[in-house]
Write the structure tokens for this entry.
Amino acid sequence: MPQVQLQWGTATHIGQREENQDRLLAAPPVFAVADGMGGHAAGAEAAQTAIDCLAVLGGRPWVTVDELQAAVRQADEDIRALGEADPSMVGAGSTLAGVAMVQSADELMWAVFHIGDSRVYCWTPSAWGQVTVDHSLVQVLVDSGHVAPENAATHPQRNIVTRALGVGSGGDAAVSLLPVVAGQRFLICSDGLSNEVAEDRLAALLGSEAPPEPVARQLVDQAVANDGRDNIAAVLVHATLLDTEP
């Protein structure tokens, strides 16, 4: 198995909201962003609950997809329990997106996971693009041909999600496996970033040679400068393959 060295950076901003309900996780081998919903206290508590459930997987070289899904299901259950214990928390929910280093068939892979419209983008020296598909009403309309892809970013219903932790039917996260590639960078972000910064600008910043921490701050600063109406969160992960030959 190849040896992988990880570097990461995080940044968040309240935007034009009264409270920041976005939460971040950088606990190798798991990295994630959660975007709370359901009112001030409820949204923040839901997002923090999601992050807490994933954080228990940190401090290991890798996890399994089953362990990752179990943590996501636990987060869904714990968020639902908030409303059962406290009426002010009824309706609490959170999106969730992230990447985790997993072992699959004796090989190290990236598991890209998400529920809702928080996103994961991947940059490599040869390719770039979004690697999650939003669980949103607008994405349903795009898939059905009722909205052109180029109009999705400005659609008035773009913030309506079809799946989230703690609300609706629940279930596992959507997970896809990607190979580990030298020089690979992942951007995990809430919609407060992806709604404000064009994808060509995201690609340019991710493709720079700067370390992850200043790039994460630069991405968030760009979203703030572009209006920053919502909470903004970004986690940037950079993978380096180490030469293990004697």
Observations:
- The first strand starts at residue 3 and ends at 13.
- The chain has a mean pLDDT of 91.
